[in-house]
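Colleagues,

For the teaching module next term, I've prepared a clean inverse folding example: a structure given as tokens, and then the sequence designed for it. I'd like students to try predicting residues themselves before seeing the answer, so please don't circulate the second half yet.
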């Protein structure tokens, strides 16, 4: 990583909005931000008045937009960082941010291969950055998103994904619910299955680039299913998260 990306920068919160009852999107202004690729993440550091500091990594939710960077943070109960970011941080407050970080789990608008995005819970965040980067570039690469959450109220970006922006032509979205479904929903509640990815994903002979992000168990299951369906393991890129203290 270059010195420019390892340096901590002051980041001022300029806007915030709720995504769910336990998640919040934060828009930071970071002077001198070098830009980023969809799928990268940053480190966020908080420092107390007594000098104690702690940091966590968060995926970037936005396409590159000058010196503005969006993060969507899920509140982790008893965590050190996420409760502050979700419940306490106010517009005008500052934190320190370092990045962008990562070069494997990224999507570039110059790619012409079909894309399959498979997200579990807050694993949608870097995948949403890819969707937004596609939209920003007026791309025509066909995208399919399979998004698994416990129940409808836990969907991130629900309004944006259902508004049918003309720039999103070629993006198909399928929701899977593991605990509770909307009234009349055709698929019963349950975990991701072979049938789900066979129905809503791309055929393996289309040679899509697959991006899978979510809790470790979800990612391992999805990757195993894709391989069983004949997808090239070299085209399956995964990013997982587990308990980190929040």
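(Answer key — instructors only)
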């Amino acid at each position: 990583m270059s010195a420019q990306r390892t340096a901590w920068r002051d980041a001022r919160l300029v806007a915030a909005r709720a995504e769910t009852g336990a998640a919040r999107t934060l828009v930071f202004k970071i002077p001198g931000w070098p830009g980023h690729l969809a799928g990268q993440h940053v480190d966020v550091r908080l420092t107390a008045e007594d000098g104690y500091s702690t940091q966590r990594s968060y995926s970037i939710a936005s396409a590159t937009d000058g010196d503005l960077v969006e993060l969507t943070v899920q509140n982790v109960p008893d965590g050190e960082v996420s409760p502050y970011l979700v419940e306490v941080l106010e517009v005008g407050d500052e934190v320190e941010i370092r990045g962008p970080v990562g070069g494997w789990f990224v999507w570039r608008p110059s790619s012409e291969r079909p894309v399959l995005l498979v997200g579990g819970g807050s694993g949608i965040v870097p995948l949403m950055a890819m969707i937004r980067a596609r939209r920003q570039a007026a791309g025509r690469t066909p995208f399919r998103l399979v998004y698994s959450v416990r129940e409808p109220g836990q969907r991130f970006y629900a309004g944006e994904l259902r508004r049918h922006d003309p720039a999103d032509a070629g993006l198909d979205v399928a929701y899977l619910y593991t605990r509770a479904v909307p009234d009349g929903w055709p698929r019963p509640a349950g975990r991701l299955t072979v049938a789900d990815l066979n129905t809503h994903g791309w055929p393996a002979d289309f040679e899509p680039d697959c991006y899978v992000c979510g809790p470790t168990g979800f990612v391992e299951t999805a990757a195993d299913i894709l391989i069983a369906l004949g997808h090239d393991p070299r085209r399956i890129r995964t990013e997982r998260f587990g308990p980190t203290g929040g």
